[in-house]
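User: Please run a holo structure prediction.
Assistant: Happy to. Please share the sequence and the ligand.
User: Here you go; the ligand is glutamic acid.
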Amino acid sequence: MSTGTFNAFQMAQEQFDRVADQLDLDQGARAFLRVPMREYHFSIPVRMDDGTVKTFRGFRCQHNDARGPAKGGIRFHPKETADTVRALSMWMTWKCAVVDIPLGGGKGGVICDPHDLSQREQEGICRGYVRQIARNIGPLQDVPAPDVMTNAQHMLWMMDEYESITGAKYPGVITGKPVGMGGSLGRTEATGSGVIFTVREALKELGIRPSDTVASVQGFGNVAQHAIMLYNKLGGKVISVSCWDQADQVSYTFRKKDGIDIHALRGITDKFGGIDKNKARDMGYELLPGEVWIEQDVDIIMPCALENQIHKDNIHKLSPGVKLIAEGANGPTTPDADKVIREKGTFVVPDFLANAGGVTCSYFEQVQCNMNYFWPKDEVLSKLDMKMTSAFQAVSDLAKEKNLYMRDAAYAISVNRVVEACRLRGWI
Ligand code: GLU
């Protein structure tokens, strides 16, 4: 996930330092918020299917819990690093604050590639992860969720292990669980739908009808797929998507200029978001190098894969017609590329606002678990829409009022809220 010298944590700190300067934060607050409050690194021994024992490295960071229990996903990725998890936990703090939910920021990860692991081996990692961290997570401490390459089944194994250890039922220990097992309707589509709620609002500000727009999407996992479906419903057309090809170990862009068929493409996609390239070719898709997703002549780009995807080496390739960048991924744009975008004046819905729908629905899942009463899907999604729309409005109002870049306005709101919570508690 980190390419070359890219370090996500340095990037998160650089972003924070910029906003700390703008807000004129004192040294004490800066030093406290620049690093996670707590972090855990551990080994997870797993008996593999061939009888050998393999040790996987796991991490959990709790960046800040002044506003509530830490919250954030656990990702499985072969290139996971402690610094990536640190960065993602920090971004979760800002994300929960921008949508004003009573949660802090956390994140976890395991260095592994689920493509190469059987279901039984993945279950071993999930249960082993919880055995290592059970004392330090919980509904009132830190609540994990799915992220890159983890899903509802992983969450359920983790919950089950936690409940076995504690000897009681704790559905609130983890979110993103299967529906019927403490999960919320709408959670699967929440992140992608949330991205599009903000796209809809941004287009209103720009005075453009969604049906007059065309988009290029990077990634074809859970976030991208649900974002595309809702964007299509609003009348938008996606002409290209890109995704990782596990067999060739590169990514490809799949393009159809008259618009991709999301449902047909989903039908030839594996559970990690990898599209079958041969079947796609037969269906009339052009198969192009992965990196060209950014060069497409479109109105909107949506990076919905990983961090460090729009950087100094490709920002000049961004098509001049792009009017809106909606960041479905966490940390897709590096600060040097961001400077170019800011100076150009392209409208950006920054990551921790655009993709906050997932954690917002996780919060709804916790609320429903606490009541032991589950809402219909429409109710979940309309509450999600309200939350995302009001967060977008607050950021955009501040941006207009103070003539700020959208990312800076979002950061200002979040950092102020977190600083205020830390101050009220007497921490800083
Ligand atoms: N992993 C998701 C994110 O990055 C969701 C986190 C959550 O639901 O806690 O926002």
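The CA atoms of residues 196 and 350 lie 13 Å apart.
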